[in-house]
Specification:
Blueprint: H1 5-14, H2 30-40
């Protein structure tokens, strides 16, 4: 059984947790959008997901 991030969000929402979701798959400036959202949000917990073909700029190289 896979637990996709939307499945986890659905279960949390059914339990009364407020969920905020963004799809940034087509946004070049996704890092800034995430920072801005995190600053404006009252959320204390974040779940992020990505697929490697969509992640164009690796942030760190393996050491």
């Amino acid at each position: 059984m896979t637990l996709g991030i939307l499945k986890v969000a659905s279960v949390l929402e059914q339990a009364g947790v407020t969920i905020e979701m963004q799809d940034l798959s087509g946004d070049e400036n996704y890092e800034q959008i995430v920072r801005d959202h995190a600053r404006a949000s009252a959320a204390t917990c974040y779940g992020l997901t990505a697929t490697t073909p969509k992640y164009r700029r690796p942030r760190r190289s393996p050491s």
